[in-house]
TrEMBL record:
Keywords: Heme, Iron, Metal-binding, Oxygen transport, Transport. It holds the Pfam family Globin. Belongs to the globin family. Residues 1-132 form the Globin domain. PANTHER family: FLAVOHEMOPROTEIN. It comes from the Bacteria. This is Globin domain protein. It comes from Leisingera daeponensis.
Amino acid sequence: MEPREIQYVQQSFAGVFARKADLAERFYVHLFTRLPAARAMFRGNFVKQKMMLTAMIASCVRNLDDPRRLEEIGTRLSREHAHLDLGPRETEAAKRALIAALRDVLGDELDPATEFAWASAISRVAGAMPRH
C-alpha cells in the first residue's frame, strides 16, 4: 500500500470506530446476504464475535504501515479460523461485505479514493493470512 492509502484508511477510521457496532452489524448483514451458509458458522455469543471483528479491524488499521506485524495478525486470524476451512469464495465475500458495511457507515465520507484505500488494506490483510 502507498503511504497515502494508509493515511486515507487511518483518517477515515475515526468515523468508523465511532460507529463500530453499526459497522459490525452491517458487515454480518452483508456477509449473510452474500453467503447465507456462513450464518451456520456463528454460534454462541454473537455480540462477542462482533466485538472481536471491530477489535481486529482496529488492530489492522493501526498496523498497516508495519508489514511484519500485519503478517502476525494475518497468521493469528488464519489460525483462529482454520476450523472453518475458508476458501477464496468466503474470503472474497467477506472482503465485499466489509466494503459494503463501510459504505453504509461512512456514507458520503467514503469517497472513491478512500474506498480504494480500504479495499487495498482489506486485500493486504487477507493476503497476509496463510492458507491451510
